[in-house]
Amino acid sequence: SNHWLRAWLGLKMNPLSILPLIMKSHHPRATEATTKYFLAQAAAATMILFATTTNAWKTGQGAMTHTAPIASSFITFAVMKKLGLAPTHLWYPKLLQGTTLHTALLISTWKKIAPLALLYMAHPHLNPHLLLQQGLLSTLIGGWAGFNQTQTRKFMAFSFIAHMGWAIIALNLSPNLTTLTMITYIIMTTTLFTSLATTTTKTISDMGTAWPISPAMLTTTMLTLMSLGGLPPLTGFMPKLLILKDLTTTNLIALGMMTLAMSLPSLFFYIRLA
């Protein structure tokens, strides 16, 4: 939709379908995760509605092509909160920890398409400097916060935050590059979650005992982890290389160097896991 009110309605309905799946295990942790997910999504939707009202007051219109600067900032933060990106990311790792691996896969992939599509459509009318700052911050937090994680679902949550940081940075350069980054991430994440579910791996220490269960799956897991880290010549290296190339072409060399430096911790713990 090219109207903020219709976009708000779509984003408001998007989380409702996943709530029964999160709480189907009837575990206290699942109930807590459901509550956190609902509150985070409701807060983000409320912020978008407030921004839509502010924009209509400032410009007299609700179309995306006529977005006031203050409404633009609110909408950017709201979409980042819906995606679970820094600095509004604290609810996301705890959510994945309270769900099953299959539900965590749906939340990490399918449920991110709607807010990302809105960001894709609206980015020409949003503040590019704010997007770059949040992308850089997400890359930093996603990389460093994954160091001390022992649970695979929390680890995958911070992996998503780091990868989305790259995607948000690429959005200012080339939307098609963001699409490529997300398609690559979704394929690798689906493969990794499937492997973890097959070998019933819930903690990092479980990986050490997974070889007798399924050697082929553990090998796939190792290759996917290194690909997620961006280790050449694996698939995950290609989007990052193209993003760095575009940053260099547009004279954003300093930003490219900072993004690359902040991704080194991610590569380290991916290799450590593999």
TrEMBL record:
It is an enzyme of class 7 (translocase). Belongs to the complex I subunit 2 family. It comes from Dravidogecko douglasadamsi. Pfam families: Proton_antipo_M. One of its GO terms (biological process) is mitochondrial electron transport, NADH to ubiquinone. Residues 1-258 form the NADH:quinone oxidoreductase/Mrp antiporter transmembrane domain. It catalyses: a ubiquinone + NADH + 5 H(+)(in) = a ubiquinol + NAD(+) + 4 H(+)(out). It is a multi-pass membrane protein. It comes from the Eukaryota. InterPro entries: Complex_I_Subunit_2, NADH_UbQ_OxRdtase_chain2, ND/Mrp_TM. Core subunit of the mitochondrial membrane respiratory chain NADH dehydrogenase (Complex I) which catalyzes electron transfer from NADH through the respiratory chain, using ubiquinone as an electron acceptor. Essential for the catalytic activity and assembly of complex I. This is NADH-ubiquinone oxidoreductase chain 2. The keyword Membrane applies. GO terms for molecular function: NADH dehydrogenase (ubiquinone) activity. Its EC number is 7.1.1.2. It is found in: Mitochondrion inner membrane. PANTHER family: NADH-UBIQUINONE OXIDOREDUCTASE CHAIN 2. The chain crosses the membrane at residues 37-57, 130-148, 155-173, 179-198, 210-232, 252-271. Keywords: Electron transport, Membrane, Mitochondrion, Mitochondrion inner membrane, NAD, Respiratory chain, Translocase, Transmembrane, Transmembrane helix, Transport, Ubiquinone. One of its GO terms (cellular component) is mitochondrial inner membrane.
